[in-house]
Amino acid sequence: MKGILKVAFKLLVNDRGKFVALLVGITFAVFLIVQLTSVFAGILTKASATIINIGAPVWVMDPAVNNPLNSIQVPDYLLDRVRSIDGVNYAVPLYSGVALVKLQDGFYQPCTILGLDDSSLVGRPKLIEGNIEDIFAENGFIVVKDSEFHKLENPTLGTTFEINDHRAVVIGIAEVTSSTLFGIPTLYTTFSRAIQYIPSPRFTIAYILVEPKSGKDIPRIKEEVAKAGYLALTDQEFQQRVSNYYKYQTGVGTNILIMTMTSFLVGLSICGQTFYTFVLENLSKFGALKAIGAKSYELIAMILFQTLFTGLTGYGLGVGFSSLLIALAKRRISSYAADITFYNLGLAFVLVLIISAISSFIAVRKVIKVEPFDIFRG
Amino acid sequence: MKAIDLVKWFGPEEIRTYAVREVSFEAYYGEMLYITGPSGSGKTTLLSMISGILRPNSGTVVVEGKEIWKMTPNELADFRLNTVGFVFQDYNLFPKLTTVENVALPLILKRQNWDEAIRQALEVLDIVGIRNRAELSPSKLSGGEQQRVALARAIVGRPDLLIFDEPTASLDGPTGKKIIGFIRENLLNEHRCILIVTHDARIFEFADRNLKMEDGRIVEIVSGGVS
C-alpha cells in the first residue's frame, strides 16, 4: 500500500497548479476559522477576566447578572445568610464598579474599581511592586499592569489620582491573568474605601465570594442561596454564563458562527471544486488503473490520502499563518483579544476533516463509478 | 483461453442492442491472434469480456482452466493484474508521473517495493528501447514512444495474456509496423498469447490467426496474415 500512496502523492504534488489551489483553499479557510474563533475566545476570556483574576470558587450574585462588570448589588443581610450556610468555610463581599479617575494632567479616565474584603483581601492580585499591607494605608490603591495600564499614564508607586474628589495613591502595581474586555484600567482597593470613594446605591455588595469547606458542599450552598432568591455559581459556571451571554444574547456569537461557516464553505467550495476537477482530469487514468488490476479500495485509499494530505498540510499552514498574525498583532496592540485555544484548533481540524471528507466523497463516487470498459471504448 | 458462447447486449429490453452474439473461440500460448472487423462489430466488447473487464450476459471465459466470470471482483482484479497486460488505444499514461513510474505501476499494485519496481521498469524500458526517456513525463514523448511506454507497462508484470486495443490507431504506417514487428519478435513466446483488436490492414501480415467479426458474430477465422 505504501507504493500506491506514493503514487497518489506524486500525482497530487506534481500537478502543481491544482495542488497550490487546493492548499490555498484549505489554508485560507483554516486561517479564517482559527482567526475568528480565536478572537471570539479572546473576547470570552476578557469578558470573564474578573472571575479569573479574583479566583473565588463560588460566586453569589443577583440572578439577573450575566456579565461580571455589570453587577447588580445584593443586600448586606445576604452576606450573613450565606455565612450561616452549613458547608461554607468563609464568605466575603466584593465591590465592583466603574469610576472616573482624574489623572495628574487633568484628563479623566474610566476605571474598573474592585473593592476587596478589608479583613481578608480575598481575591487580591499578585503584586509586582509594593507591599500588600500598604493597601490599608490612607488612600491606598493597587493598579493592574495590563494592556490598559498606559491609559493611567504609566503610574509608579506614589502616583496620585483623584476619584470623586478623593485622593488616591498608588501603593502597589499588580499583574493579573487576564485583562478586561472593555479596554479600561483596573484598580484594587479595600471594600470600605471603594464604597467611600464611589457613590453607591442602597446596597453595596456586588458579589459574595464563597469558599466551601469541600466540593460536596457546593450543591447545598447553591440550594440555600436559591431559597433566598439569589444565585450561586462556581467560577466555571459563571464563566460559562458569561460565555453564553456573549454567544446567544449579544449577536457576537451568531456573527462569529456565520463568518466561521462562511469560511468553511469557501474552503469547501474551493477544495471540492478543485479536487473534483483533478479527479475528472485523471478519470480515464483511474479507469486504466482499474483495468490493470487496481482494486476499488486501493483507489479510494489513494483519493483519501490525497485529500487528507492536502487537508493536513493546509491545516498546518493555516494555523501557522493565523498564529503568526495573532502574535504580531499582540506585539503591536497589547489589548488585542485573540486566544488560540485547543478548542479553536480542534474545531478547525474537524472542519478540515469535513472538507477533506466531502471532497473525497465527491471524487470517490466518480472514481468508483468509472468502468474500465469505458476506457476501452475511449 | 476459451471463450464459450459469449453474449453481451446493452440497453433496456425494448431497445436492446446486441454487441456480441454467441461467440466461441480458443486462443493458445505462442499465438498472435487478431480480432478484426468494422466499427461496431463487437471487437472491443469481446476483448473486454475476455480480459475480465466486462461481464457477459451469458457464456463464459476460461483461462488456464479457471472460469474468470465465477471470480469475485477482487479475484478478477488480481486476475487482470497477474495474468493480463493491457495496451489501451489512448495509452492512458499518467502525465504527472515519470515514464519509468508509469511503467512500474502494475508492480506497485502487486505490492512490490518501490525501488525494486523502478529497477524492473527500467529493465523493461531498456527492452522497448526508450530507457533514455525514463525520467521524462510521457507528455514529452512522441506517439511512438508513448506506445512503447504503454507496451512496457503491459509487459512489466510478465502477463500470460497481452491485449492491445487498436495499437496502431495513432501511429503512422511505418511506425505501426515497426511496433507490431517488435511485439511479434520480442514479446511473443510459448508462455504468452497476444490478442490484438485492430482494423488496420497494414499490420494484418503479423497475425497467426484473424477472427473477423461482423454484427457481433465471428464470420470467419483465417490462419496467417490476411488482407
UniProtKB/TrEMBL annotation, chain A:
<feature type="domain" description="ABC3 transporter permease C-terminal">
    <location>
        <begin position="262"/>
        <end position="372"/>
    </location>
</feature>
<feature type="transmembrane region" description="Helical">
    <location>
        <begin position="299"/>
        <end position="328"/>
    </location>
</feature>
<feature type="transmembrane region" description="Helical">
    <location>
        <begin position="20"/>
        <end position="44"/>
    </location>
</feature>
<dbReference type="GO" id="GO:0005886">
    <property type="term" value="C:plasma membrane"/>
</dbReference>
<keyword id="KW-1003">Cell membrane</keyword>
<dbReference type="Pfam" id="PF02687">
    <property type="entry name" value="FtsX"/>
</dbReference>
<feature type="transmembrane region" description="Helical">
    <location>
        <begin position="256"/>
        <end position="279"/>
    </location>
</feature>
<dbReference type="InterPro" id="IPR051125">
    <property type="entry name" value="ABC-4/HrtB_transporter"/>
</dbReference>
<feature type="domain" description="MacB-like periplasmic core">
    <location>
        <begin position="23"/>
        <end position="227"/>
    </location>
</feature>
<dbReference type="Pfam" id="PF12704">
    <property type="entry name" value="MacB_PCD"/>
</dbReference>
<keyword id="KW-1133">Transmembrane helix</keyword>
<keyword id="KW-0472">Membrane</keyword>
<keyword id="KW-0812">Transmembrane</keyword>
<protein>
    <submittedName>
        <fullName>FtsX-like permease family protein</fullName>
    </submittedName>
</protein>
<dbReference type="InterPro" id="IPR025857">
    <property type="entry name" value="MacB_PCD"/>
</dbReference>
<keyword id="KW-0813">Transport</keyword>
<dbReference type="InterPro" id="IPR003838">
    <property type="entry name" value="ABC3_permease_C"/>
</dbReference>
<feature type="transmembrane region" description="Helical">
    <location>
        <begin position="340"/>
        <end position="364"/>
    </location>
</feature>
